[in-house]
Amino acid sequence: MAKELSFEEKKQKMIGNITENYRQVEKSIVNQLYMKHDLHGTTVGSERELIWSQLFEMIIPRKFVIEQSVFIIDSHGGVSKEVDFAILDETYTPYIFRYGRIKFVPIEAIAAVIECKSQNIKEKSIKNWAKSIQSLKTSTQSTARLATGIATGAVPTQQSTRPIRILCALQENCNSTIKDYFDFTLLASRDDDGSNECIEIEYKQAREDETLLDWFKSLNFHNIEFAESTPGSENVKEALNKHSLKDYAVLDQSGRSISLLTFNFQLNQLLMLINNPILFPHRAYVDLFNSKK
Questions:
Q1: Which of 47, 49, 80, 197 would bridge 27 by S-S if both were Cys, CB 3.0 to 4.6 A apart?
Q2: pLDDT tens-place string over residues 83-142
């Protein structure tokens, strides 16, 4: 008769099962990507995106929506190139236009953008895509009730946001220069014999040693100066300077990263640094459409 496990042993087994499930999901995604790739020569775009979306649906909190085929717009009249997937918070921000597969979403709502590629990636195309998103500007022309009163502009800790940029691709189709246009790169790979299926999670080399404070400034003060006089900034700097994304790596007993579980914690920590979307500037968009009459 098998010995009954103690409560502590059961807990350890449960944690191990969660880890193993992440490994199985990782292998399943890679195998599906390569199966489509092997059958078609290239993975059909919509199918490729659907496979990658399984990963994000598994780890993104329910407050966020994952929309496919999105154009991002700002109140200055800027429009991005089409984005395969956008992770957005619908809580406060209306769609500018949504009908069937056509969606125009304000930059103020966008927390992350995801490009999914399975064939050779043209750097010029990626560069133009990234530039079209980087050039979008959030507006501070907002009015909203907060717990402490009425805001008539952006809150001090969130002045100009930008989305986290993520690339999902096959390892053999992605070179190092392509990765520089993204914050995260998820690379699916396997050996020639079909074994060792894995997804490597990389972030832009220049960001490897950046602290959470660097990320906070980048995501909430995009292209503007971080005000050192921001309320609570001293406490913020002290707390956020202690950690980088390296501190969120989950390792197995051999010291190998459990990639998807690590990415889960890293991405969601950055989403928590953005937290709620920047307050929506209704008047700024009204002015935009009135100017186009």
A1: 197
A2: 999 999 888 788 888 887 889 999 999 999 999 986 778 889 999 999 999 999 999 999
Compute how many other C-beta atoms are within 10 angstroms of the C-beta atom of residue 255.
7
Is the pTM higher than 0.85? The answer reads yes
Contacts of 210 (CB under 8 A, 6+ apart): 244, 245
Across the chain, the runs of DSSP E, i.e. the strands, are 64-73, 83-89, 97-99, 102-106, 110-116, 144-146, 149-151, 164-170, 184-189, 198-203
Which residue, 293, 271, 141, 150, is CA-closest to 215?
271
What is the number of H-type helices and E-type strands within the chain? Answer: 8, 10
Looking at residue 159, the DSSP 8-state letter turns out to be S
Q: Residue 132 in contact with residue 80, Cβ under 8 Å?
A: yes
- Residue 188 counted as domain residue: yes
Count of structural domains, the chain:
1
Residue 73 lies in a domain: yes
Q: How do residues 197-227 score in pLDDT, each as one tens digit?
A: 899 998 876 666 789 999 999 999 999 888 7
In a domain, residue 2? The reply is: no
Residue 1 domain-assigned?
no
pLDDT band with cut points at 50, 70 and 90 for residue 17: confident
Please work out, in degrees rounded to the nearest 5, the angle formed at the alpha carbon of residue 254 by the alpha carbons of 248 and 259.
40
